[in-house]
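Standup notes, structure subgroup. Blocker cleared on the S-adenosylmethionine input:
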Amino acid sequence: MTASQHAHGAHAHDHASRAHDHAGSPDDAMTSLLDLDGEVLSGYWSAALDWVASAAASAAASAAGNNAGRLLDLGAGTGTGALGLAERFPRAEVIAVDVEPGSLARLRDKARARGLAGRVRAVAADLDAGWPDLGPLDLTWASMSLHHLAEPGRVLADALAATRPGGLIAAAEFAEPLRFLRPAAVPAGFEDRLLDRLGRAHAEAMPTLGSAWAPRLAAAGWEVAGEREFPVDLDPPAHPRAAEYARAWFARLSEGLADQLEPADQATLTALLAGDGPLSPADLRIRGTRTVTLARRPR
Ligand SMILES: C[S@@+](CC[C@H](N)C(=O)[O-])C[C@H]1O[C@@H](n2cnc3c(N)ncnc32)[C@H](O)[C@@H]1O
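Run returned:
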């Protein structure tokens, strides 16, 4: 079992995912969910990566010999971050590390399609088992991956050791999962109750989920350089795949939580997924907040 079988807070699906592990098949649902996040939330992704890229460009400009040339996407998934960074740093080598081969296969396909295969290298590694030999780094982007790790503090310290003095790390995390439904579209409190169940399922499995990351970075030896909240509020979501994203999210929740819900909420969830429920753009409002914490390796 890897610690990787989760997406965007839909972490209550370990049982189904373990079955995937045993079967050795890629987790297609996870892969789709990550791609949909990158597409539907492209405004958030662009803003966050632009902010990080601009900080990295300033750091590179002020450090002789440091040209932000080697970048890492830690827990890269299907590569929204890795490819976004490769596009923002046209001469950089980008290493995308993940434990999930299905996600990395998708990442490689996307890199090829965008003409980035020569500069984006996908490395399969379980960061819980130790730090892979990645060479020296100038910038690490870790989006929604640190909370999956058994010992994120140890991984942050290993990342620090691999980073050139003055180099950066950016951790993108969230206090609460996204919400997808207009309250009026479902029975009162439905999404609250779903997220409450999800939170309980996560509490034991992923104790660092939703925690503050600046203190964790500082404890690992990083110098925190800034933190920015990126609110997401797509009202209504204009992206043509928004309803697909919502459906994929609720399908993922349903896999892990359906048997823990009250019958009325189970019925609402079943109706949502059966296509009789409110998943038209008019019923959706995708909202939440992602927080990016930026830190540098002291010189
Ligand atoms: C929620 S996904 C985020 C993916 C991507 N960073 C994004 O934001 O779209 C978390 C990722 O962390 C990876 N992951 C979890 N545990 C890991 C581990 N021990 N070693 C390497 N990757 C891991 C998962 O496979 C998954 O792709």
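Discussed briefly. The mean pLDDT is 88.
Next: hand off to the docking folks.
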